[in-house]
Design a protein that fits this description.
InterPro entries: MEDAG/TEX26. The protein is an alpha/beta fold and 215 residues long. The protein has 7 helices and 14 strands.
Amino acid sequence: MNASKTSHSRMRVTEVEEFLKNPPDGFSVEELSSGHRVHSDPEKSLVLIDDFNSCRREIVFLNSVGRKVKMQNLWEYTSMRKSLLSKRIYLLMSACEENFSVNDKKAANEERVAVLKRFVVSINANDPFIKWQMEKGLDWSISSVAGESYRLDIDLTEIMENWAVKNSSVITDKLTKVQPVWRDASFTLKYYSDALFDFAHWFGFSKRTFCLRLT
């Protein structure tokens, strides 16, 4: 198994450096003095990756809509729903290790978690099982908020935890096994309705989460 890239029929996990060096089909990487610009085909891929820095260089996915997607009308929701049920979804996730040696509270908030490696994770949303879960989760979130504004988090933490158990050597070179803490192992849909008194959204009652699984 390649130490920097692992695959599953429903999911691919690739180290950022490997992704930039050998981008998958539908992607191309432009190298600049300041960093990298990643181009993708929006007809085939749904990229949900915010700009980030790697090795002090800026990485920008030009066709990305970001990890938190805002929708303000039915057309935008319908378009995003279609993409979520048909395209390969790309996310950036970080495998981290808790730093228990940090004592100072202020420092702890900033340095308690150290990034071990960053990965580009892709999910095949056109896979029947993934598509069924996504559709079910989207329908549930809409029906439960009755036309109001809402926030929906699609969580992949369990998927990554299961993957890490079988791929610990990919995450770290340490001899002792590390159980990573996953950062950004989710993406968010925010829908804003035009309801005049959107009390449930104002008071945080319209937040929903569902966990995506591979099996």
